[in-house]
């Protein structure tokens, strides 16, 4: 199997003059992009970065992020992207756990690292990236290497492209190790499954590129298949709409909350979406009400897919231009196998709820320096995803919920996603999340957190009456909490762990 560098070089040979990255300040074709990244890779090598060294990248979406990512890959090093929203304690943990020797950081973010770096002698190199309108000017520290690039000798199955730290529900995150073979396999499968058109498709990437979904589908897939990415910052619906129109984006990728945000646009902005062929939704469960509202308003098909970071991350998607089943995450993509298993790893029948297991070349090498954690999720060459789901008689998979989120009320399973889907059908509700709370009498009870559309409000009694009309008695949330907005991470996912902490504070057990 080839590696990412070879795949990108092959694209240059046939699509070198086609756009690779488009921003408001400049457009850069594949040949120029790879030549620039190679010069930057030579500069990193000249500064002492060697094959296998870990290099952290702490930056927002943009041309600079894309070039820095590929420069690290071409230097033979391993990238460690840093989530822009995590706190200093988490950043320090990741930098130390990964053993980074270099950090690439935007100037405005550098102050957040000062105290951390005082305690990290192993970090030999810190390169600041300026933030002027000119991306190449911002990257000037890496554009004048003293010596030429030394192509690294890559073993696709052993050498790492990236260590992606997953957001843990408790304790510190684990670093998923993704190899060249993992990412070559996944980008090729995405390209085939999503029917990308070489040389013409352009994907709008507003999801942060430090996130697995955005990095693979929004960055690496276009660069290894002769397409283009349009990186923008911020979840502002007007800005997204204007960027789609200005750069004639053909594919939009997002988590469900982004589709909810776009629904706020005035009807006269719908015409700005005419260039889009389709949207892809992943990263979290897509409420059916949001999916239907978006497709009706914009006339654009949205295809749900799924996959955990540990799988590079895409495992399945509804067939593009084929039979799409709303509420499912579709069929396994080429080269990926999926099945539903019980607690003992036995294969379950279609329609039965169990854990989703995945096998394929996209499955991670393991967790960085955590063999026990790796062993806990691997069953031979099958990865246990932690997602509860079902498979129907046509092979389509559905996510019922995260295994850790399952609520057991009086011995009966209650799936938060089912309750959330019901809450999203209420016209006043913008966001909803359901978690379980310990209860002495019932074992656990569901607690619902909701946020309303601007200008709307709901009382506890109204919410309770609505749920009683649509849910079984044991499924009705015991308590409703109305917030202005629900907490989210950088990728737009609702942070249920933050809601659990809030519930613990309310019960007086947070510090026990």
Structure description:
Helix 2 crosses helix 3 and helix 7 crosses helix 8. Strand 22 and strand 23 form a beta hairpin. It contains 15 helices and 26 strands. A seven-stranded mixed sheet has the order 10-9-11-12-13-14-15, with helices on both faces. Helix content is 30%, strand content 25%. The relative contact order is 0.09. The protein starts with a helix and ends in a 5-residue tail after the last helix. The chain has two domains: 386 residues, ANL, N-terminal domain (Rossmann fold, 3-Layer(aba) Sandwich); 102 residues, 2-Layer Sandwich (GMP Synthetase, Chain A, domain 3). It is globular. The chain is an alpha/beta fold.
**Overall residue-averaged pLDDT value:** 93
CATH superfamily of the largest domain: ANL, N-terminal domain
Characterize the overall form. Answer: globular
CA-CA gap between termini: 51 Å
Structural class: alpha/beta
CATH topology of the largest domain: Rossmann fold
Using DSSP, what is the number of strands?
26
CATH architecture of the largest domain: 3-Layer(aba) Sandwich
**What summary fits the major beta sheet?**
7 strands, mixed
CATH class of the largest domain: Alpha Beta
């Amino acid at each position: 199997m080839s590696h990412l560098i070879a795949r990108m070089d092959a694209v240059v040979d046939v699509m070198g003059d086609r756009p690779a990255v488009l921003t408001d300040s400049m457009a850069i074709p594949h040949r120029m992009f790879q030549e620039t990244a190679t010069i930057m890779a030579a500069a990193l090598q000249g500064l002492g970065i060697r094959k296998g060294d870990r290099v952290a990248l702490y930056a927002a979406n943009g041309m600079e992020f894309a070039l820095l990512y590929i420069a690290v890959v071409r230097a033979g090093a391993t990238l460690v992207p840093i989530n822009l929203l995590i706190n200093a304690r988490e950043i320090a943990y990741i930098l130390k756990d990964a053993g980074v020797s270099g950090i690439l950081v935007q100037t405005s973010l550098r102050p957040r690292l000062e105290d951390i770096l005082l305690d990290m002698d192993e970090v030999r190199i810190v390169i600041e990236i300026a933030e002027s309108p000119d991306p190449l000017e911002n990257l000037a520290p890496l554009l004048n290497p003293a010596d030429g690039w030394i192509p690294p000798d890559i073993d696709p199955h052993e050498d790492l492209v990236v260590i992606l730290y997953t957001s843990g529900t408790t304790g510190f995150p684990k670093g998923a190790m993704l190899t060249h073979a993992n990412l070559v396999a996944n980008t090729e499968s995405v390209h085939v499954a999503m029917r990308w058109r070489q040389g013409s498709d352009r994907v709008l990437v507003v999801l942060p590129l430090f996130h697995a979904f955005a990095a693979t589908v929004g960055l690496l897939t276009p660069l290894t298949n002769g397409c283009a990415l349009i990186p923008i910052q911020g979840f502002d619906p007007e800005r997204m709409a204007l960027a789609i129109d200005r750069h004639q984006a053909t594919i939009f990728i997002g988590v469900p909350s982004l589709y909810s945000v776009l629904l706020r646009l005035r009807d006269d902005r719908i015409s700005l979406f005419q260039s889009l062929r389709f949207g892809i939704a992943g990263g979290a469960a897509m409420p059916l009400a949001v999916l239907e509202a978006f497709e009706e308003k914009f006339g654009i098909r949205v295809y749900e897919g799924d996959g955990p970071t540990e799988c590079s991350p895409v495992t399945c998607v509804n067939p593009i231009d084929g039979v799409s089943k709303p509420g499912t995450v579709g069929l396994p993509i080429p080269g990926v196998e999926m099945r539903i298993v019980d607690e003992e790893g036995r294969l379950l029948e279609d329609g039965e709820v169990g854990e989703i297991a995945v096998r394929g070349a996209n499955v991670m090498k393991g967790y960085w320096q955590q063999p026990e954690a790796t062993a806990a999720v691997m069953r031979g060459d099958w990865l246990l995803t932690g997602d509860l789901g079902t498979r129907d008689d046509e092979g389509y998979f559905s996510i019922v919920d995260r295994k850790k989120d399952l609520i057991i009320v009086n011995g009966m399973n209650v799936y938060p996603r089912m309750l959330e889907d019901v809450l999203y059908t209420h016209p006043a509700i913008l966001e909803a999340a359901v978690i379980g709370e310990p209860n002495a009498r019932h074992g656990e009870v569901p607690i619902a957190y909701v946020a309303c559309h601007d200008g709307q409000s709901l009382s506890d009694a109204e919410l309770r009456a609505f749920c009683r009309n649509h849910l079984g008695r044991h499924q009705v949330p015991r308590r409703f909490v109305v917030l202005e907005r629900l907490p989210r991470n950088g990728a737009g996912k609702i942070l249920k762990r933050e809601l659990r902490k809030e519930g613990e504070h309310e019960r007086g057990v947070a510090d026990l």
